[in-house]
Write a structure and sequence with these properties.
Blueprint (H helix, E strand, L loop, with lengths): L1 H9 L4 H16 L3 H14 L4 H7 L1 H49 L3 H6 L2 H43 L1 H8 L2 H38 L1 H6 L3 H54 L4 H42 L21 E10 L2 E11 L4 E6 L5 H6 L9 E6 L2 E2 L5 H6 L1 E4 L10 H5 L8 H10 L3 H5 L18 H14 L4 E5 L7 H12 L6 E5 L3 H4 L4 E6 L2 E6 L1 H7 L2 H13 L10
Parallel strand pairs: 3-8, 3-9, 6-7, 7-8
Antiparallel strand pairs: 1-2, 1-4, 4-5, 9-10
Helix pairs in contact: 2-5, 2-7, 3-4, 3-5, 3-12, 5-7, 7-8, 7-9, 7-12, 9-11, 9-12, 11-12, 16-18, 21-22
Adenosine-5'-triphosphate (ATP) binds next to helix 13.
Protein name: ABC transporter ATP-binding protein
GO molecular function, one term: ATP binding
GO cellular component, one term: plasma membrane
């Protein structure tokens, strides 16, 4: 079975330990027949045998030996159980540790498409609950199954030695028990797959709610969100109860069968004792060991339930384990080059799944040039710039950097040459200094400050209680939108990339600050090609060239003056903004 093969593969390093633990379980469980055997000897020799009273005086040493043997084997079994549990724990914890690292790396290395199709809550469930379920199964469920089967087999073998007929009478119950268990397992399996899905929905709702708590509060939608969460919680709880209740449909039958072991033993065993076919001691051994047959039957429901959970979780983990990103880093480059920064789009088309978002786009940006991209919302600006660092791959055409198709460049090297400040700013829960130096943790403090100044962030950082050491909350909580944008800009500039991509990075800053940032960008100490997505004419006016996107196509291209002269989309935006804010940007781009 594929899943078991996967488990075996991932036990590498702990296989010997795990197999040893299984062997100890088998040995320890086999020993369960020893004490009933000793008990049988004691009963036959010292309690119910013909010479019992005589033996009590003559064979006292044997009696003491048998009693000590009983104690000794009980201790041995306890010791083996202790030791094997330790080995199971170690092997399963080690495996969990390795798989967790592997999955984390796997998730880290996935491309954007993967993140588009996988919910954060679901990925979190896989990394926590599912992994732990697999570990629990390796340490407990498989152990329980092995031990139950061994006790069952040892008891059957022992019974056969005592009396074949009586054993066969008892075993008559096994086929119906297995049939009932099989029907139960088939019925409950889809329920656990569904349960796992509901858990993932519950976690996704929780994660979204916590992350989006500000929006919830802003719209005073707490009641609604609580109701939404309640609904998911009720769904999960209902599915959980339904799965648990199914067991109750089968439980009475299995319990009756389990009890029937005792009834058959009493009737048939009693008859055989009376006939003198088996001794009292043998009967007592049967009575003691009968739980070895009936107990696994009683527990079969719990084991099947746990196994279904185990396989549902394992399936989810294996999905991540074998997920292959479409865009991979081959780690071929030994020395990372610094690019010149020439970018070329050659008849590029792009789609998300089946929806075409960019259609036949061609343009070139020379090293050091600044190009601005403008267009209505949803026109494809972000999608276009996402193709340069290969966050996505083109559907048709080519994107070239320094004359080479980006698909042929080493991903590390390519991305290391590009500084990106994304539209949706994400800062880490770290100090401001740590966030600014994210691309180069070794960056000297003076440099961090220099880039903060260039991004017009230094002044507000200085005024914060602990300056650059102030810790910002998750996703930058505690900072204004414009402040976050400036830190994101500083972070992108700080790696001094030959290509700088700014996606609407100054939309939330005031015009004066924006002017400061533009001056910084113009006067960068390192050569840098800049691609700036902006909606404000004040930002685009000084670019070497402006592209206007509409519905995935370039509808206008030229300098500020050329586009104004065209009297198209750009001119309309220019007029609207100048009239709206009473600010003059002249035809040659001067304010
Ligand atoms: N991850 C995605 N999966 C599917 N479709 C997407 C995805 N991201 C964007 N789109 C769609 O692609 C189109 C272009 O989106 P894009 O974000 O590139 O526009 P934009 O011009 O940057 O918009 P804005 O100015 O609002 O940021 C939109 O119709 C959008 O709905």
């Amino acid at each position: 079975m594929f899943q078991l093969k996967w488990l075996w593969q991932n036990l590498l390093g702990d296989r010997v330990r795990y197999i040893f633990a299984l062997c100890l379980s088998v040995v320890g469980s086999s020993l369960t027949i020893i004490n009933p055997y000793i008990g049988q000897r004691i009963v036959d020799t010292f309690i119910a045998g013909d010479n019992a009273a005589q033996n009590l005086t003559d064979e006292r040493a044997l009696l003491i030996g048998l009693c000590l043997g009983m104690i000794g084997f009980s201790l041995l079994r306890t010791g083996l159980a202790y030791f094997s549990t330790m080995l199971y724990e170690r092997a399963s914890q080690n495996m969990l540790f390795r798989v967790r690292i592997y999955l984390y790396n796997k998730i880290q290395n996935q491309d954007m498409k993967y993140y588009d199709h996988n919910r954060t809550g679901d990925l979190m469930t896989k990394m926590t609950g599912d992994l732990d379920m697999v570990r629990h199964s390796m340490a407990w469920i498989i152990k329980t199954v092995i031990e139950s089967l061994t006790v069952f087999a040892a008891a059957v073998v022992y019974f056969f030695f005592i009396d074949v007929g009586l054993t066969l009478w008892l075993l008559i119950l096994s086929p119906p028990i297995f049939i009932v268990a099989f029907i139960f397992a088939r019925r409950v399996r889809p329920m656990y797959t569904d349960l796992r899905e509901r858990l993932s929905q519950l976690n996704t709702a929780t994660q979204e709610n916590i992350a989006g708590n500000r929006v919830v509060k802003a719209f005073a939608r707490e009641e609604y969100e609580i109701r939404k969460f309640d609904e998911k919680n009720v769904n999960y709880s209902k599915a959980n109860k339904a799965a648990a209740m199914v067991w109750l449909d089968y439980f009475p039958y299995l319990e009756i069968f389990a009890q029937a072991f005792n009834v058959i033993l009493m009737l048939a065993g009693g008859l055989l004792v009376m006939n003198g076919r088996i001794t009292f001691g043998e009967f007592s051994a049967f009575s003691v060991l009968i739980w070895g047959l009936s107990n696994p039957m009683r527990n079969i429901g719990i084991i099947i339930n746990d196994f279904q959970r185990f396989f549902a979780s394992l399936h989810k983990i294996i999905e991540v384990y074998y997920a292959h990103p479409g865009i991979v880093n081959n780690h071929m480059a030994t020395i990372k080059r610094r690019y010149e920064g020439r970018i070329q789009f050659d008849q590029v088309s792009f789609k998300y799944d089946n929806a075409t978002v960019l259609d036949n786009i061609s343009f070139t940006v020379e090293p050091g040039e600044t190009i601005a991209i403008m267009g209505a919302t949803g026109s494809g600006k972000t999608s276009l710039i996402n193709l340069i660092p290969r966050f996505y791959d083109v559907a048709k055409g080519r994107v070239l950097v320094d004359g080479t198709d980006v698909r042929k460049l080493e991903l590390d090297e390519l991305r290391g040459n590009i500084g990106v400040a994304t539209q949706d700013v994400l800062l880490f829960s770290d100090t401001i200094d740590g966030n600014l130096a994210y691309g180069d943790p070794e960056m000297p403090e003076e440099d961090v400050m220099k880039f903060a100044k260039l991004a017009a962030a230094h002044d507000f950082i200085r005024k914060m209680p602990e300056g650059y050491d102030t810790i910002v909350g998750e996703r930058g909580v505690g900072l204004s939108g414009g402040q976050k944008q400036r830190i994101a800009l500083g972070r992108a500039m700080a790696v001094q990339p030959p290509i700088l991509i700014l996606d609407d990075t100054t939309s939330a800053v005031d015009l004066e600050t924006e002017a400061h940032i533009q001056k910084s960008l113009r006067e960068l100490e390192f050569s840098c090609t800049k691609i700036i997505i902006a909606q404000r004419v004040s930002t685009t006016a000084e670019a070497d060239r402006i592209l206007i996107l509409d519905n995935g196509r370039v509808i206008e291209e030229g300098t500020h003056a050329e586009l104004l002269a065209k009297r198209g989309y750009y001119y309309d935006v220019f007029m609207l903004q100048n009239e709206g804010i009473g600010r003059q940007v002249t035809a040659d781009g001067q304010k």
